[in-house]
Batch of 2 targets.
Target 1
Amino acid sequence: MPFYQMLCITTHVNEYKHIKELVRQTATHVLNAGGVVRKINSMGTLTLPQRMRRHKAAHSIGDYWTLHFDTAPRTLRSLNAIMRRDPRVIRWTVLKLADKVDDVAVKGQQAITHSASSVEDLVN
């Protein structure tokens, strides 16, 4: 499964329960499709670089958050449909970071792809 990062800008509301619900809905959608959520990061409330219009409303500030996840490419279509319909979402984008786990591993290290028979096999 490819590794993706989604950056999302949501409408700013003083109570964060709306954003929490959107993040939970997004992560649950990925998990129900057989994916893995690796990291959820909130970047807080920021002024938008320009005034943005979405769902017949203009926005000048927004709440930024990211979601790192592994999922099948077909799940992205349904995820994009959810984000498109949700009135809390101003903008979003999904970036493909890697095709395999080995592409994400730190240079000089490899992901464990086979089971080792002992601890010495892992160390050596």
Target 2
Amino acid sequence: MVPEVWVDRYDARLLLDSFHVNDPKGVDIRSESPAGWSDLPSDSEDTFFFSPEETDDYRREKRRRLMGQAREERLRARIEEDGEGDEDLWGGSDEEPDESVKQVMEKTAKLILLAPNPTQMEMKILVDFGEKQPAFAFLKGRWKRRWRIIRASTSRDLKQAEELQAASKGLGGLAGYGDSDDEGSNEEASNKE
């Protein structure tokens, strides 16, 4: 029976490869199968035609994948141990905000979408007002469905306004352009005389 060992998640032993202890009796060279890959490690067949660099990369990636899986398992165990679940912090996304919060959402959506870097603007607003004013809880996930709807409609409205503005410009400075052939021919005639 192997004693159960608890390892801290920051333990350096997690970074080491697992050690294989050789059997002191030795391994029988003649196996029951005459030839094949059965007596070799499972990835030997995969790495047979690899160059040494490719083999090292393959093993490094395999070790990274195994460490990632082990980390995910530890996190899952940790969450179960702490009793944290996937419960919604805000009580569901079908909750509707007050009218004042909807106005804040509309103004914030317009400000964010007009910014040169919308993601940075959203983070700045969250940092500046997220903790101080509960109306900005939609940036943390509350009223998620309503926030998505308002943001999409504001984006659509801004695009329509931009298209209307571009269409109303027309030809710009060429709006008063008229036929000037008569004037040009009169000037040429006076220049000839």
